[in-house]
Amino acid sequence: MSTKYVDDFRTAARRAVDWVADYLENVRDYPVTPRMNAGDLVDRLPKSAPDTGEPFKQILKDFEKVIVPSVVHWNHPGFMAYFACTGSTPAIIAEMLAAALNTNGIHWKTSPAVTELEQVTLAWLRQWLGLPDSFFGEIFDTASVSSLHGIAAAREMADPDARENGSRPNLTLYTSEQAHSSIEKDAIALGIGRCNVRKIPVDAEFRMIPGALVKAIQRDLDAGKRPFCVVATVGTTSTTSIDPVPAIADIADQYALWLHVDAAYAGAAVVVPELRRIFDGVERAHSLVVNAHKWLFSPMDLSVFYTRRPDILRRAFSLVPEYLTPVDDTRAVNLMDYGVPLGRRFRALKLWFIMRYFGREGICTLIRSQVAMAKKLAGWVDADPRFERMAPVPLSVVCFRYKGTDEQNQAILDAVNASGKVFLSHTVLNGKLALRVAIGNLGTAREDVEQAWELVRLATMAAEAWRPGSL
Amino acid sequence: MSTKYVDDFRTAARRAVDWVADYLENVRDYPVTPRMNAGDLVDRLPKSAPDTGEPFKQILKDFEKVIVPSVVHWNHPGFMAYFACTGSTPAIIAEMLAAALNTNGIHWKTSPAVTELEQVTLAWLRQWLGLPDSFFGEIFDTASVSSLHGIAAAREMADPDARENGSRPNLTLYTSEQAHSSIEKDAIALGIGRCNVRKIPVDAEFRMIPGALVKAIQRDLDAGKRPFCVVATVGTTSTTSIDPVPAIADIADQYALWLHVDAAYAGAAVVVPELRRIFDGVERAHSLVVNAHKWLFSPMDLSVFYTRRPDILRRAFSLVPEYLTPVDDTRAVNLMDYGVPLGRRFRALKLWFIMRYFGREGICTLIRSQVAMAKKLAGWVDADPRFERMAPVPLSVVCFRYKGTDEQNQAILDAVNASGKVFLSHTVLNGKLALRVAIGNLGTAREDVEQAWELVRLATMAAEAWRPGSL
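Output (structure tokens, whole complex):
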């Protein structure tokens, strides 16, 4: 490569490193969410790309001045919305290295490092998760896509003819009312159809009711339907409730269903010994998703998919064109045979950096402290008679509400978020709007959680003052 | 964040920047492909992740000593396999920044910058590609996933009931014999079924024959099938042949089929004015895929998907759970409504860096020179009576063979690749093994192509000497 090209990079990349370091050091100075209207960034940017190239200095300046002010800072200690997560420093470095190598693990031969490091890191993670060696791992971008592959394999097990002749309209899939919307979306994409997704009721703690699952399966069998898959969730999106996997696995066995477990968020918690029990029965799953970009300190995107039936997944997806003939070696795994995407970026590199940099104990300490902070917050909520907690807190998410109207709760949420100090999200539980505090960023400290709670209490006083008739 | 955490990053990231700069400067010193057996890297790495964290220094050292020697260097000027591509410097910097921000564009509110910069950069690219403003763009990881969305939207147009009740077994899809395998794989995933994919014959220049397409559609209609989609390819994977899109668009109109155009590789070439004609008729496509990580100097992964019917795509995929209620603003696009993946990493940032750093003229100059190098190589092949060219060279890929046996051609390929200087791949055309030289890396210079050709000629002399009976 030309010297100028490389020298320009060296200067600009060093400047970018300094920017990142300063950003991480001072991230609390940024408002978590921008104050802007839709279209503001579009309006600030030129209508066309430049004809001639621009210097890095200008691009980096615009990045700081124009782009960053439109960013929601998911890497901010005050980010407690959705599932809080972390773009950790080892992964930031690894992403840069991966982009520089730009190596692509389509099949083994196209880059042994990509395939083998993916196998190694997912074997390491499998140990951390206490899963049997029979679990085969691969990386996708998002949990939606991982679950799509689990459900596709389920279809292949139930109806091997689908690969050739298409989905049959009688296949039915089971998941709970609290399952992630991606399960339903995957069923749409796969040609299963939304009407063939049964949403099984949950108990008072938002966990799938096994008896209701059996009833639904029986009803479908009686109607000539063909139950093929059940999706259990370990750590649902609203409340982090944990479906009773052992009972669901029994039912899956009884009816010969594929059991897919969505542990996209909660899977990482199993690294902590005292939380291991949330994975009871998961070793019986046919497939499993755990997102490293949720609670394993990886930036987007790194969704880990495991299956103990790679043979079935491979049967569903293997399709080898002449120009991609793989090497003939049993140790050479060709990951393109196990899913839709063909290109495979070197995502495993960041997982390897993360696992080595933090070590099992480092990850364990972080997750343990985040769960402790959530329990502390739950205690504050419980101790304040103006609030009610809306769900148990098994992990690092707390759902609660002010004992008033939904409008008041919305007003509290909006006021808290307008502070720019924290960003909370919401959900609806038992028909009521609930505030939702998710703790998961590496930088989040006790003071951040205290601040969030203080802001909620302040906003509540304001909302109370505005109660109709209160003036 | 703690000072040590940030300081450690600053030191290690600077070291990583220097490694990348040195790597780019001296990349020709690396063998393009590693000499190793399957499992070698697995065997060199520990069986378990460390319990306690390790210093960056050690991780970076192992990266250099253990990981890099197992990498196929797709960013090497001698990489001429598959489709050559580039992890360019502006994108390397942008990937680091994106990982540090770790912002996630699920819907507009979760990060306006992600959504709006994706809209802006894809509007810029749309202009470069000469497409109408009505083309709505979004980014997926790979072309396989982009095309999956095109075909899913096609199904939604033909059979809006599929979303609710699943795919019907009579839907048929048309593409050429030379189409990428991902089209068939997408049909499997979507529940269309492999048997419902018709592979239309091609002419002597590997382009779909419109008359054969009409015949296949008619045959299916007569048999009670329901043709719903045709996939044309602009730049096929084997030979970069260009299907006659205007004629195919006429047929799509006539039979009310969705027209999806796979221009994953070749789309970028349209930035060059004299190559614009390869996009004739593409403005009539319902959807289109162009991979920036192929020929737009982006590292993996960045697949650009356009559709002029976002309404249909949205109808297929929109599904909004309570915890993701978007803001009520017509300018706030919620990209989660237009596909399977929910999380959306800040891929647009690297596209913005690339388009600004190179500018339209910079990109144009690079692509133009790569096409010229391919034509030069084609001329050398044509001038040597021992070789035959196997396909036209409209872009930057040259397919040719030594006029001997497949075994001899394979031996030539193996010998050339064993040099470590270049990496070529192969394909099969008209039943014969062909060598395939793809030019597309930013660093590839005339000397690299000359060297590749010289290596082929040397290896051919060896292969000729080894002809049975020649000793």
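Chain A touches chain B through 169 residues (CB under 8 Å).
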